[in-house]
Structures are given as C-alpha cells and as structure tokens.
Design a protein that fits this description.
Peroxisomal Thiolase, Chain A, domain 1, twelve-stranded mixed beta sheet, 11 helices
C-alpha cells in the first residue's frame, strides 16, 4: 500500500497547499498576461504564471546559476513536500529514498539563453552547467543531490500525462521495497522559444479574456491556456509512514498508462483503457468512484473524446466530473499531479471544486460537470485522468486511507 504523506505545491493560483486550495474553491485564477518578454506580435498572450515566489528564500545562492526556472520550482516544491511530510532525511538511509519526476520541456529558458550566447559570443561564453541544466532528468538529479537520496530514481517524459506516470512509478518503487519516494511533475517553458513551442501545436486559445480563454467541455471552447508549475508528493509505504507516526493524505490505490490505438483499428480509446486498468489495479469498479478529475483539454474534439470515454466507463450513472485546472492552465507534467493534490483535499474536506469559467456543456457530452460553486459531497475515491500529446494516457485512483476496504 502506497500512501501520500506530503504535498508541495507551486501553482499559478497559489503557493503551498493551503493557498492553492483556497484559490481552487474561491475561483481565484492564476491566468494572466504573459509578461516575461514582448508578446505583442503573438496570436495568444495568456498563461498561468507562478508569481511572488522568492526563490532566494528557499535555495542556496550557488544553485541559481546552475538551474532553470523549472528546476527551481521543482526544488522548492520538493522541500515543501518533505517538510509537510515531516521527513528528516538525515534520519533515513540514503538508499531508502528515491526520486521520480516528470518533465516535458527540460530547462527551456536556461538552454535558449545559452544558445544565444553560443551564437552571439562563441562557445567560451556558454555556461558549463548547460551540460545538464537543459536535460529532462535534471529535476530528479537536483532533488536527489540536495537531499542525499540515492535510492532507485528515474525521470519520465510524457507531456501532460507525465506527472501521473511519475506517481505510478513511485508507487511501483515503493512496492519493490523502497520506503519513500519523492515524486511529481513541474514544468515551465515561457521564454520566446518555449512560447512558440506551445503555439505550434495549434491548440492554445487565442481568446484574450482570462475568464473565458480556457473553458473545457463548453460549447464555446476554443483551446487551452498553457501554465507552469505543478506539485511534488511524498509517496511512502504504509509501514514507513506508520513507523514515523504519519497517517498521510490518502492512498495511491491504482495506476495505469496506455497509448492511443490507431484510429483505424476500432479499439476503445486509450484514455478509457487507462481508466479501466487503473480501477482494476485498485481492485474497484466504476461504481466505487465518487468524482473524476478530468484531463479537460479545452479542444472540442478532445473534450468530446474524453466525454465519450467517461460515458462508456460509467454509463448513465452520472459521476461528478471536474477540472479545476481552468484556474491554472495546463501545466504539462505538473497538471496531473496538481489534480491529485486537489483530489486528496476533496476527499479530506468532502467537497468537489468546480470547473470555473465553463458553461453551456453540450447535452451530447452526457457528463455531470461540476460548475459554478463547490459541490458538497462525500468523496471516498477519486479517478484522475491525464492525456499528453502524441497519444499518452495515464490514470490514477486516489482513495481516502480511512475508507480503504
């Protein structure tokens, strides 16, 4: 049994669990004008930005020239998660602690700055830290080095699905005998090149109004808003948590990942199969699920596909569906983990956060989308879904510890 005992959140609408959850329930958005460079010539100018975080307050000065903004966010989130779980790494064996992170973009801002130096000034001016600061695995490496964690560790790249994959891999690592794993996903890609990479996919909303730019499952959906940040979790064996006197937030009860089948094969959608397999891994049925935290792409075709997958899985039961990410944007590898944080808090506080900004859900979708206001509900089990570009799908089942059958 894998339990989540610590949470570290760096989200566009809140730093830390309490601030993030308060914003999620009240509808305080972190989406605004992208102001890190001149975006006046771009078709889209909105992003979910992490603001008001004084990195120097949390990280030693020597790390600043070595790290990209995404790594700094990941290091802060990991520190907060460890503190939240009351983990003193000096009291644990270094090989009993692992790290699994997901990252979709690497150190975009760092590496592009160094590329500019290479082209304009020559190779002698490129930072020696470029050799690793750009890499997808750097967050795993920097967290493990800073906290002296030498247990089994890995890095995953699956875009929006990656964060859930990291949690799933962490649970497997715990199952294999490692007592504690730091796991999650954090991303940031908001330099000019990074912004162009977001826009190149053709799915970013060009609506200039932060209140309406990202409204998944709406008949007026026009795409999504990119964001940065994410969350890091402490995943432990139940035995390890009990030995430390910690109960934890909830159980990471099930996980599965799939790829989309070829459209000509006539097979069930990859997202539906991921959800079904995750439920089977948790040893439950669709009737046991109290809420679904949806991937919520905000692209009509993709929203329709997800709604269809949910309809096939749950039938006419009408399980509540929500997507609080409308307040943060889609965070790539950080998005799924942030939904897990929201799911854990929903279970603890018996409330489902709404999908702010979405209205006019087409009847053909056939989903009970929670909108407008938080919905009081008894939440024992949550299904969290995520899809990444190029066919990645991931699903996790989150369950309250006290409700485990």
């Amino acid at each position: 049994m894998s339990v989540i005992t610590g949470l570290g959140v760096v989200a566009p609408n809140g730093l830390g669990l309490k601030e993030f959850w308060a914003a999620t329930l009240s509808g305080r958005s972190g989406i605004g004008e992208l102001d890190r460079f001149d975006t006046s010539g771009y078709p889209a100018r909105l992003a979910g930005l992490v603001r008001d975080l004084d990195i120097a307050e949390y990280l030693p000065r020597k790390l600043m020239p070595q790290t990209d903004v995404s790594t700094r966010l990941a290091l802060v989130a990991a520190q907060w998660a460890l503190e939240d779980a009351e983990v003193d790494t000096a009291e644990l064996k270094d090989y009993d602690m692992g790290v699994v992170t997901a990252n979709a973009s690497g150190g975009f801002e760092f590496t592009h700055r160094e590329f500019n130096k290479l082209w304009a000034q020559g190779p002698d001016h490129v930072s020696v830290y470029e050799s690793f600061a750009w890499f997808y695995a750097v967050n795993t490496g920097q967290i493990s080095i800073r906290h002296r964690m030498r247990g089994p560790s890995s890095a995953l790249v699956a875009e929006q699905a990656g964060g859930l994959d990291a949690l799933g891999q962490a649970a497997r690592t715990v199952r294999d005998g490692v007592p504690l794993v730091v796991a999650g996903g954090v991303d940031s890609a908001f330099d000019p090149w990074g912004w162009l990479s977001h826009l190149a996919g053709g799915q970013v909303s060009t609506d200039p109004d932060p209140a309406t730019a990202y409204r998944p499952f709406s008949s007026h959906a026009t795409g999504y808003v990119p964001g940065e940040g994410g969350a890091i979790c402490i995943v432990e064996s139940a035995q390890s948590a009990r030995a430390r006197g910690i109960q934890g937030y909830g159980e990471l009860a099930g996980y599965a990942a799939t790829f989309d089948p070829h459209p000509d094969k006539g097979l069930p959608s990859g997202l539906r199969r991921a959800a079904s397999l995750a439920l089977a891994d948790a040893g439950i049925t669709p009737e046991d699920v109290d809420v679904v935290f949806a991937d919520a792409a905000g692209v009509p075709k993709l929203d329709r596909t997800e709604a269809q997958a949910l309809g096939e899985l749950f039938g006419t039961r009408g399980v509540p569906v929500t997507a609080p990410k409308t307040l943060t944007g889609r965070l790539m590898s950080g998005g799924g983990v942030l939904d897990v944080v929201a799911a854990l808090t929903s279970i603890q506080e018996s409330v489902i956060p709404p999908t702010f900004g979405t209205a006019n859900v087409p009847d053909e979708y056939g989903i009970d989308l929670v909108t407008g206001e938080p919905r009081p509900a008894t939440v024992r089990t949550a299904l969290v879904l995520a899809r990444g570009r190029w066919g990645f799908n991931a699903a996790t089942v989150i369950r309250g510890i006290e409700n485990r059958s």
